[in-house]
Design goal:
257 residues, alpha/beta, Elongation Factor Tu (Ef-tu), domain 3, Rossmann fold, Dihydroorotate dehydrogenase B (pyrk subunit), domain 3, 7-stranded mixed sheet, 19% helix, 36% strand, globular, binds flavin-adenine dinucleotide, binds FE2/S2 (inorganic) cluster
Length: 257
C-alpha cells in the first residue's frame, strides 16, 4: 500500500556536482518500503505539477527515515535542491515493486550506472551472502564508499577514465568475469540492455530497474510503458514502469523498439 506523507526534510546536502542526498522523516514509507522501490516527490511548482519519481536509496525503518539521492536535471530537481531543512515536502510511496532478493544465493552481483546507483545501496544492505558491485558513470560514480563500508567487493568504471576502469561497467564485467546467482541493476537503458545480453551469455538471471520517463506515476496513463514478454507467454504486453515495475527480468524486456 502506498500513501501520501508530508515528510520533514532532515538533510539536503550536495554530495557531488549537481547531486544531492536528501533524508526525510517519513515513518509510513520507511516502514513499508523495500529496496528498489521509489517515491513520487511533489514540487509544488504550478507548471511542474506532476510529481518526480526518485528511488529510495536508504531506509531506516526504526527511526522512520528514508534517503533519496537525486541529480539536478530540470526544474523539479532544481526545486528539491533548494528546499531547506525543516520544511515539509509532499511525497507518495512506496511505489513500484522493488527488487526480489534471491533466497539462499551465495553471491549477488549489483550493477549501477550514473544516477541508477542509489537504490542499490539499500539492496546491498539487505542481501545476505557476498555482494560484488560494479559502479559506472561518465566520470566519478557516486556512493562508492557506502558499498565498501557494507563489505562489498567494489569495481569502478568511468567513461572518461578519470577513476577506475576506462569504459562502461559491462566492459569491465567482461574483464573481471564475476560469478553469481543473480544480477540486480539500475541505470541507463543502454547499459541495462548490454547487461541483459551479458547475463544471458553467462546464464545468470538479471533484474533490471528501468527509469522510463513518467507522467501520472500511478498507472493511470501509458506514459511509462515498456514491452514485456513474461516467461511461458507468447505475446508481448505493454507494462507500466510505475505500477508493474520499475524492476523487470532482463530477459523479458523488448530492448529494441
Ligand atoms: C523509477 C524511477 C526512479 C528514479 N530514480 C531517480 C533517482 O534516484 N535519482 C534521480 O536523480 N533521478 C531518478 N529518476 C529520474 C527522475 O525522475 C528525473 O530526473 C526527474 O523526474 C526529472 O525532473 P525535473 O523536473 O528535474 O526535470 P524535467 O524538466 O522533467 O526534465 C529535464 C531533463 O531530464 C530528462 N529526464 C526526465 N526524466 C527522465 C528519466 N526518467 N530518464 C531520463 N531522462 C529524464 C528530460 O528528458 C529532460 O531532458 C528516476 C526515474 C524513475 C522513472
Ligand atoms: S506514468 Fe502514467 S502509467 Fe506510468
Amino acid at each position: 500500500m502506498k500513501k501520501i506523507e508530508y515528510a520533514e526534510i532532515l538533510i539536503n546536502d550536495k554530495i557531488a556536482d549537481d547531486i544531492y542526498s536528501m533524508t526525510l522523516f517519513s515513518p509510513f514509507i520507511a516502514k513499508e518500503a523495500k529496496a528498489g522501490q521509489f517515491v513520487e516527490v511533489y514540487t509544488g511548482l504550478g507548471e511542474h505539477i506532476l510529481p518526480r519519481p526518485i528511488s529510495i536509496s536508504e531506509i531506516d525503518s526504526q527511526n522512520g527515515k528514508i534517503t533519496l539521492v537525486y541529480q539536478i536535471v530540470g526544474k523539479g530537481t532544481e526545486y528539491f535542491s533548494k528546499c531547506p531543512i525543516g520544511d515539509l515536502i509532499k511525497i507518495m510511496g512506496p511505489c513500484g515493486n522493488g527488487f526480489e532478493i534471491k533466497k539462499n544465493a551465495k553471491k549477488h552481483i549489483l550493477v549501477g550506472g550514473g544516477i541508477g546507483i542509489p537504490p542499490l545501496v539499500q539492496l546491498c544492505r539487505d542481501i545476505k551472502g557476498k555482494a560484488v558491485v560494479f559502479l559506472g558513470a561518465k566520470s566519478n560514480p557516486v556512493l562508492t564508499d557506502k558499498f565498501r563500508k557494507l563489505g562489498a567487493e567494489v569495481y569502478i568504471a568511468s567513461d572518461d577514465g578519470s577513476i577506475g576502469f576506462k569504459g562502461n561497467v559491462v566492459e569491465l564485467m567482461k574483464e573481471i568475469k564475476p560469478e553469481g546467482d543473480m544480477v540486480y541493476s539500475c541505470g541507463p537503458k543502454i547499459m541495462l540492455k548490454f547487461l541483459a545480453q551479458w547475463a544471458k551469455e553467462n546464464n545468470i538471471p538479471v533484474q533490471v530497474s528501468m527509469e522510463e520517463r513518467m507522467a501520472c506515476g500511478i498507472g493511470a496513463c501509458v506514459g511509462c510503458a515498456v514491452k514485456i514478454r513474461k516467461k511461458g507467454e507468447s505475446d508481448w504486453q505493454n507494462l507500466k514502469v510505475c505500477k508493474d515495475g520499475p524492476v523487470f527480468m532482463g530477459d523479458e524486456v523488448m530492448w529494441d523498439e
